[in-house]
Specification:
- The complex is a heterodimer of chains A (about 160) and B (about 210).
- Chain A is mostly beta strands and about 160 residues long.
- Chain A has a single domain, classed as PCu(A)C copper chaperone (Immunoglobulin-like), CATH 2.60.40.1890.
- In chain A, strands 1, 2, 3, 4, 5, 6, 7, 8, 9 and 10 form a 10-stranded mixed β-sheet that branches.
- The longest helix of chain A has 20 residues.
- With about 210 residues, chain B is an alpha+beta fold.
- Chain B folds into 2 domains: about 30 residues; about 180 residues, 3-Layer(aba) Sandwich (Glutaredoxin), CATH 3.40.30.10.
- Chain B has 6 helices and 10 strands, in the order ααββββαβαβαββββα.
- The longest helix of chain B has 29 residues.
- The radius of gyration of chain B is 24 Å and the shape is elongated.
- Classes of the chains: A mainly beta (about 160), B alpha+beta (about 210).
Chain lengths: ~160, ~210
């Protein structure tokens, strides 16, 4: 267990290091802990998660997302309707000034649709967020089989720990 | 002479008494904690007052073998109703169930069976499930079948699902992310309510097994 934790910890450190090396020195908007879920080969779609931090004085709106491995990326959220889980597409994503918006399993996530091939654990995937009034912010998301927290099923209010 | 002998005996007696108390206390706290039914429900496991016979059902597993009432006899079974075209909550739950199995120790770890029953049998063929389910754990079982058979099975387990068609003709399936617990007699025993938590699920599962085995 400890070993596993160390490996996961190391993977997060590497992903952060990679992200830093990619030149994400945007003073206003930063993406942290971006990861893509590895699913069995042949699956056409998968999910991606990240934390978007807005240090600017104004709210920003994510209008679209793109990735080098998917035909299309959509913003989805998992809603609980009468005890049943339902996926709903969101047209955009607002991040208030000073907010850390965590996209996490069981809640809001990015859907990577039409993958040519399913990325495998250890790969990196390029994710770019397009904003209404800010230049694009891109990140290299690490591909993993599960989040670094597989001890919960997530939920709407799940906050990604730092 | 006899007075000092009595003192020694008294001291020995007191020491023995203390040792017994301390040993008993240590033994007690080393025992796994067993919850009552109301404590279990407060921690997410709802048990039926009387486990319910599910009756006959006829489904098929990802090896192409029949999956019916006798398949669930002889071990505890955890059932998740999901589908392969579900990239968020389903893989999260499957990964969680794998972490849950890995966290079990001792007698609790003995042969619980994890089953994902597809709520989207039109796309989830035997082959599709064979490609998907073992990815999360080679011992997990995928189950599919006729839509109505699965619907009837899910309804008996209080785990309804709903196929919703979008305007463009594509569809998605609304489903529960609870986990159904089946006892070794093959009867519906209870369910773990989502969102699942590993520590809570471990202690409630252990308690349910312990109480049932008594």
């Amino acid at each position: 267990m400890i070993k596993k934790g160390m490996v996961i910890g190391l993977a997060s450190v590497i992903s952060l290091a990679v992200a830093a090396a990619q030149g994400e020195q945007d003073a206003v908007l930063t993406i942290e802990n971006a990861w893509v879920r590895a699913l069995p080969p042949g699956q056409p779609n998968t999910a991606a998660y990240l934390t978007l931090v807005n240090r600017g004085g104004e709210a920003v709106v994510v209008e679209s997302v793109s990735s080098d491995v998917a035909d299309m990326v959509e913003i989805h959220t998992t809603r609980n309707a009468d005890g049943l889980m339902r996926m709903a597409q969101l047209p955009s994503l607002e991040v208030a000034s000073g907010q850390r918006l965590a996209l996490a399993p069981g809640g809001t996530h990015l859907m990577l649709l039409g993958l040519e091939t399913m990325p495998v654990a250890g790969d990196t995937v390029q994710l770019c967020l397009q904003f209404a009034s800010h230049r694009d912010v891109c990140t290299s998301a690490v591909v993993r089989k599960s989040s670094d927290r597989s001890d919960s099923q997530g939920g709407q209010n799940h906050q990604h720990h730092q | 002479m006899s007075q000092s002998r009595n003192i020694k005996l008294t001291i020995a007696g007191v020491l023995l008494f203390i040792t017994v108390i301390v040993a008993g206390f240590v033994y007690r706290i080393s025992l796994p904690r067993i919850m009552t039914a109301s404590e279990m429900s407060a921690n997410g496991l709802y048990l039926l007052e009387t486990p319910r016979n599910i009756g006959e059902f006829d489904l098929i597993d990802h090896y192409g073998n029949p999956f019916n009432s006798s398949t669930m006899e002889g071990q505890w079974t955890l059932i998740f109703f999901g589908f392969t075209h579900c990239p968020d909550i389903c893989p999260t739950t499957m990964t969680f169930l794998n972490a849950f199995l890995e966290s079990l120790e001792g007698t609790e770890a003995e042969n619980p069976q994890v089953v994902m029953v597809s709520v989207d049998p039109a796309r989830d063929t035997v082959q599709q499930l064979a490609d998907y389910v073992p990815y999360f754990n080679p011992d997990f079982t995928g189950v599919t079948g006729e839509f109505l058979d699965i619907h009837r099975f899910a309804t008996k387990l209080n785990t309804p699902f709903r196929k919703v068609t979008d305007e463009d003709g594509s569809y998605q399936v609304d489903h529960s992310s609870n986990i159904v617990l089946i006892n070794p007699r093959g009867d519906y025993h209870g369910f773990f309510r989502a969102p699942l938590d590993l520590a809570k699920m471990k202690v409630t599962y252990r308690s349910a097994r312990f109480i049932w085995g008594r």
